[in-house]
Every structure is written in structure tokens, then in C-alpha cells.
């Protein structure tokens, strides 16, 4: 059977193209060997289940590994009380052991666990202790999808028993290691149940170590996966260039990497080159992927996350990373954002564009005068498949001045960037796409990259802060154009100088031509 790029469920080496997980598994095994209890908390479809499945196999020579999934092996009703949970957990525990070849010494304690008709939490852990003592190899317990235990006090009682067993491990046999994986960390589970301040910062799972391992795919990881595909199909792709470009769009978010590869493979019109990747990105930005639906649900569930996205994307604010800030912790926990050089940034370009589209199209944005102006004039801007970006900026200056010329400085600072993208969106919709360049965005400048039928436009949007500052911005844009190997760039300046010269002009900087529009 031919391998494929997988975007659903866990990845299996014989069926799917995968990155090499050996270094990650070695790092986790080192923690297991040291007897550490571990939490793995990452966003949806970040490779947690695949890692646990690979870890089960990797540890199996030295340990009995029980890999339990709360989503498939524990129904919601089984968390209703201590007795029901204990019995259900014992049944799942025994079921997993039946698939493992064990020594005869385990037959008696496993049978005792199975036949105990008066099960409760304390008795469950006494059975675990007897099983661990009888086993000829240490036992490692993996539990995936612990989010299924949300809002269940009985699960917190289970964690408390694990903690107690861990603390007494020198006297009473227990698991070598326990690894809990899910989107939420255990503290967040507890916050849902007991929101008061005392329980907010005192978790029954404070004996565990959070896995700090980077589970995203590096360009080298992606290149290794593409090399395996290339060995099968001999496309002639530039593996390193393709890996770097895919990484630039996804920042190595595992399922996004797989989506782009999958789209290129399955669309006969796409090839393994820069245009193929950009086309796959455009397709992904329109695709109703379960990951995007999950993120949208989180924004409805946690309104403060939406506000943080508005600050980051629409207002261009720089948010310092504060590890004790609940909103920031949630942004990172759900996969929306990451910490970069002490600041909070959106996790990847795909998310940036998807979130921006969502924020731009909510409420009455699509009925705003500036959006309708872009939609009405769209035919003027494209000729023979070419987008006339100079004309787009000229018309934007005109419409902005006509519609918003009398607005206050604060209004323009907060909304100028959003208004340009509202104007641009109907013009390129369905044919091109854009993304915000996170690494260059700050309080006064935003770089927007527009892809339209294979042609790229780099547009720097900034707040005017005098001639000297503006000249520095021109030089920065010129340097940035070098990165994209293009000689023409665009400046959109929002000026609050009463004597400003509204309009457009062209600037020559060396071999670069910069078209500037001032509103």
C-alpha cells in the first residue's frame, strides 16, 4: 500500500509519511527512566497521540506500557462517581494488559483486580501497587485525551491518588512513570471545577513535569519527510527549499504541514515548487479543517481570546509574554500563539490569515463602505490576470479620504490597517491571498504579503512619525524586498500631520522601486 500524508488521527509509519521521532522519544525515555511523571499539553492535532503510540513501542523492551485513551475507552457516564470510574478504569487497565505478553506472576494480581466486586478508588490503587510489585518489568501508564475528564471531580480524586502513590513510591510499589496528554493542562482542568483562588493554584498533579520538548516540525524534520516521498516518486523537487517554504507558512505545526503536502500530492495541477506551495496555502485557507473549527469554538467559549487576537492582529500591539497571565496561557495552550523573544505572537502565518479573515468578516464589516468600495471597483484592478497594486493603493487613498478623512487620529491608528485589508479582501478574494508578516510587525509598521496568481506584493503599512523615520522605513522595506528577490515594493503611510500631502509617488532606492501612498 502506498504511503500518504495523513491529516486525521495518529500517524502509522507503514501507512504515512512521517518525521523522524527518535530524538523526541529518546528525550521522553530519559524522563521515564528517571521515574518522572509527565504532562504533554499541546493544541489540537499537534502530534500528541502519534507521539504516545510511538513511545509505547519505543519503551516496550524495558517496560510494560499501558497506553489508554479516555476518549475511546472511558465514556462520560463512567466519570459520574468514584465506584463507576474505578470499575471502568480497572476494566480498561486489564484489557490493555491482555494485549501484552507478560510473566506468569501477574496472573494472580490482575485476576484479583478483575474480580473485585467492591471497587473504590483506594482499593483500585492497592491493586495497582500489587501489580507493580509482581511485575518483572516497571509499568508505565500513558493516558491520552485527559480533556475528557473536564468538570469531573472524580478525576481530580484519581490524580490525588496518583500523587499519593508517587510520594510513597520508596515504600509502596507504583508506576515507574505516568504521562497525561491533552490540550488542557491539569491546572486548567481544576480551574473549571473549582474557580476559587485557593484551588486555582494548587493542583493534585503538582508532582509532574511539563514536557518542554518542541513538538513542532523543524525545516530539517520536514525535509526528512519529503526525502522519503521523493525516494518513492522522484519528482525532482528541491527538498530543502520546499521544506523551508512549508515551514515558513506553518511554523512546523504538524497537521498544517501535512495538509500542504497532501494538497500538492492530490491536486494534479500542483507541483513541488514555490507556486505549488502557495496554491496549497490558498486552498488550506478556504478549507473547513476540523482544527480551524476547533479554534473557532474556543473563541466563542473564551471571549478574552478574541480580544487578545484583535490586539495582536488588528491593532498591531506588542504583547509581552507573561507566564502568569491567564489569557496568554490560554492563547498558547490552545495553539493560537507562541512565545517568541519575550513576546506573544500568532503561532504561524496560516493562523494569522485565517484569524484575520474571521475578524474582518464578522459583525457588519462586509457592509462597511470601504469593503463595498473594494468590491464595486474590483474589475478595474485586474488586467490579463495581473493585479495592479498601484491602482489599488491610489483608489484606497481616495476612498479612505472621502469616507474617513474627518475621523480622529486614534480611530485611524486603531483601524487603519484593518480598513486597508477590508478594502483589499474583495479585490483578491478567490484568486489571491495575503498574510501578515509577524516577525516585522510592531506598533508602527505592518508588512502584508499578497500572493496573486504567482506574483507577490510586499506592502508595508506604517504610522507616519516624521521624514527621518519614514526614510528608515523605506530602507527597511528595500532590505525586506531582497529576501523575496523582488525589486518593487509598496508603502502605505497613515499620516496625522495637518500639512500632509495626500496621494501617491514613486521612490527609487538603488535597484528598488517603492510606490508610496499617503492617507
Structure, described:
This protein is an alpha/beta fold. It has helices at 22-33, 48-59, 70-73, 82-98, 107-115, 121-134, 153-167, 186-193, 197-200, 219-233, 239-250, 254-266, 274-286, 290-301, 303-314, 326-333, 349-361, 369-377, 389-404, 409-428, 467-484, and strands at 38-41, 64-69, 139-144, 177-182, 209-210, 319-320, 337-340, 343-346, 382-383, 386-387, 432-436, 445-452, 455-463, 488-494, 503-509, 512-518. Mean pLDDT is 85; it is low at 191-202 and 438-445. The termini are far apart. A hairpin with an 8-residue loop joins β11 and β12 (445-452).
Furnish the topology, listing elements before pairings.
Layout: H1 22-33, E1 38-41, H2 48-59, E2 64-69, H3 70-73, H4 82-98, H5 107-115, H6 121-134, E3 139-144, H7 153-167, E4 177-182, H8 186-193, H9 197-200, E5 209-210, H10 219-233, H11 239-250, H12 254-266, H13 274-286, H14 290-301, H15 303-314, E6 319-320, H16 326-333, E7 337-340, E8 343-346, H17 349-361, H18 369-377, E9 382-383, E10 386-387, H19 389-404, H20 409-428, E11 432-436, E12 445-452, E13 455-463, H21 467-484, E14 488-494, E15 503-509, E16 512-518
Parallel strand pairs: 1-4, 1-5, 2-3, 3-4, 13-14, 14-16
Antiparallel strand pairs: 6-8, 7-8, 9-10, 11-12, 12-13, 15-16
Helix pairs in contact: 1-2, 5-6, 6-7, 10-11, 12-13, 14-15, 15-17, 18-19, 18-20, 19-20
Total helical elements: 21
* Domain count: 4
Radius of gyration, taken over Cα atoms and rounded to an integer in Å: 27 Å
Number of strands: 16
CATH superfamily of the largest domain: P-loop containing nucleotide triphosphate hydrolases
pLDDT < 50 stretches: 191-202, 438-445
CATH architecture of the largest domain: 3-Layer(aba) Sandwich
| Mean pLDDT level | 85
Shape: elongated
Structural class: alpha/beta
Strand order of the largest sheet: 11-12-13-14-16-15
Q: In what range is the share of β-strand residues? A: 15-25%
CATH topology of the largest domain: Rossmann fold
CA(first)-CA(last) distance: 59 Å
Instruction: Describe the main β-sheet briefly.
Output: 6 strands, mixed
What portion of residues is helical? 40-55%
CATH class of the largest domain: Alpha Beta
Amino acid at each position: 500500500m502506498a504511503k500518504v500524508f495523513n491529516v486525521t488521527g495518529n500517524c502509522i509509519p507503514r501507512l504515512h509519511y512521517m518525521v523522524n521521532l527518535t530524538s523526541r522519544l529518546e528525550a521522553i525515555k530519559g524522563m521515564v527512566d528517571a521515574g518522572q511523571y509527565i504532562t504533554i499539553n499541546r493544541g489540537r492535532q499537534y502530534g500528541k497521540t502519534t507521539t504516545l503510540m510511538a513511545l509505547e513501542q519505543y519503551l516496550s523492551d524495558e517496560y510494560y506500557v499501558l497506553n489508554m485513551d479516555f476518549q475511546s475507552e472511558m465514556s462520560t457516564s463512567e466519570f459520574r462517581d468514584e465506584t463507576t470510574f474505578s470499575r471502568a478504569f480497572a476494566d480498561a487497565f486489564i484489557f490493555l494488559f491482555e494485549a501484552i505478553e507478560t510473566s506468569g506472576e501477574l496472573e494472580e494480581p490482575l485476576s484479583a483486580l478483575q474480580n473485585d466486586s467492591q471497587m473504590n478508588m483506594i482499593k483500585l490503587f492497592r491493586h495497582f501497587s500489587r501489580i507493580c510489585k509482581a511485575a518483572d518489568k516497571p509499568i508505565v501508564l500513558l493516558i491520552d485525551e485527559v480533556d475528557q475528564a473536564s468538570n469531573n471531580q472524580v478525576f481530580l480524586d484519581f490524580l490525588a491518588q496518583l500523587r499519593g502513590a508517587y510520594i510513597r513510591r520508596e515504600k509502596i510499589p507504583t508506576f515507574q512513570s505516568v504521562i497525561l496528554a491533552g490540550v488542557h493542562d491539569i491546572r486548567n482542568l481544576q480551574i473549571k471545577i473549582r474557580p476559587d483562588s485557593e484551588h486555582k493554584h494548587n493542583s493534585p498533579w503538582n508532582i509532574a513535569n511539563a514536557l518542554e520538548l518542541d513538538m513542532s516540525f523543524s525545516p530539517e524534520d520536514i525535509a526528512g519527510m519529503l526525502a522519503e516521498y521523493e525516494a518513492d516518486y522522484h519528482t525532482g523537487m528541491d527538498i530543502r527549499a520546499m521544506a523551508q517554504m512549508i515551514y515558513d507558512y506553518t511554523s512546523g505545526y504538524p497537521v498544517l504541514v501535512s495538509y500542504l503536502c497532501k494538497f500538492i500530492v492530490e491536486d494534479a495541477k500542483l507541483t513541488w515548487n514555490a507556486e505549488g506551495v502557495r496554491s496549497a496555502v490558498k486552498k488550506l485557507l478556504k478549507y473547513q479543517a476540523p482544527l480551524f473549527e476547533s479554534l473557532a469554538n474556543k473563541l466563542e467559549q473564551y471571549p478574552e481570546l478574541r480580544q487578545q487576537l484583535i490586539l495582536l492582529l488588528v491593532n498591531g500591539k506588542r504583547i509581552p509574554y507573561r507566564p502568569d497571565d491567564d489569557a496568554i496561557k490560554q492563547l498558547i495552550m490552545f495553539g493560537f500563539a507562541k512565545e517568541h523573544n519575550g513576546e506573544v505572537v500568532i503561532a504561524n502565518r496560516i493562523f494569522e490569515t485565517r484569524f484575520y479573515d474571521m475578524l474582518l468578516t464578522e459583525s457588519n464589516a462586509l457592509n462597511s463602505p470601504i469593503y463595498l468600495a473594494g468590491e464595486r471597483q474590483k474589475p478595474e484592478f485586474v488586467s490579463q490576470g495581473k493585479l495592479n497594486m498601484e491602482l489599488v493603493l491610489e483608489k484606497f487613498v481616495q476612498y479612505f479620504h472621502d469616507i474617513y478623512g474627518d475621523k480622529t487620529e486614534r480611530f485611524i491608528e486603531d483601524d487603519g490597517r484593518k480598513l486597508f485589508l477590508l478594502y483589499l479582501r474583495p479585490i483578491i478574494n478567490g484568486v489571491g491571498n495575503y498574510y501578515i508578516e509577524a516577525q516585522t510587525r510592531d506598533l508602527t509598521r505592518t508588512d502584508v504579503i499578497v500572493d496573486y496568481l504567482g506574483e507577490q506584493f510586499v506592502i508595508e503599512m506604517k504610522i507616519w512619525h516624521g521624514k527621518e523615520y519614514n526614510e528608515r522605513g523605506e530602507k527597511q522595506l528595500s532590505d525586506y524586498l531582497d529576501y523575496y528577490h523582488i525589486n518593487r515594493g509598496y508603502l502605505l503611510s497613515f499620516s496625522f500631520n495637518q500639512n500632509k500631502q495626500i496621494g501617491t509617488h514613486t521612490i527609487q532606492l538603488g535597484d528598488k522601486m517603492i510606490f508610496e501612498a499617503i492617507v
